[in-house]
Write a structure and sequence with these properties.
The chain is mainly alpha-helical and 154 residues long. It is built from 6 helices and 2 strands.
């Protein structure tokens, strides 16, 4: 596990240095080790899938970013559904990221479907923050997603 933690940390440092390809490689090496040691039902798996999705977004590869965010959400639902509030923040963040990624790809149908799914995870803290290209986007989960205003140019 120490080796996996080291790969994970190397990936984070590479990401800060904007060496995204190296960061993805390190994260994926850590992923493989964690998967062998613990299986999918391990918190670090969620964090790595999330990290890789963010890295692909920063690299401009929205298709891969979508793929990894979908994997993240599937793992959350598959292994953590029995505890409603466990990983609530990750559920919300992943849904917002998917909505944002599909919106950036001009796939508004999928974008809206992920924003609407957010309502299923309504919680006392009815807010979610998506760090999208270092900008904060606040989505109020208790508002109707249909009322979102999209700029003419995204």
């Amino acid at each position: 596990e120490d080796v996996a933690n080291t790969y994970c940390n190397i990936g984070l440092v590479c990401a800060h240095l904007k060496k995204y390809t190296e960061a993805v490689d390190s994260q994926q090496k850590a992923f493989q080790i964690y998967l062998k040691l613990h299986g999918e039902n391990y918190n670090r798996i969620l964090h790595i899938l999330n990290n890789v999705g963010v890295l692909y977004k920063w690299m401009g590869n929205h298709k891969k970013a979508i793929e990894y965010n979908i994997k993240t959400f599937q793992v959350i639902l598959k292994h953590h559904i029995e505890k409603k509030n466990e990983h609530l923040q990750e559920k919300k963040l992943t849904l917002v990221r998917l909505g944002d990624l599909f919106r950036n790809e001009f796939d508004f149908k999928n974008s809206m479907s992920y924003y609407h799914m957010l309502h299923k995870f309504k919680h006392e803290d009815d807010w979610i923050i998506s760090a999208s290209q270092n900008r904060k986007f606040i989505f109020m989960a208790n508002e109707d997603a249909k009322s979102l205003n999209y700029p003419d140019k995204i």
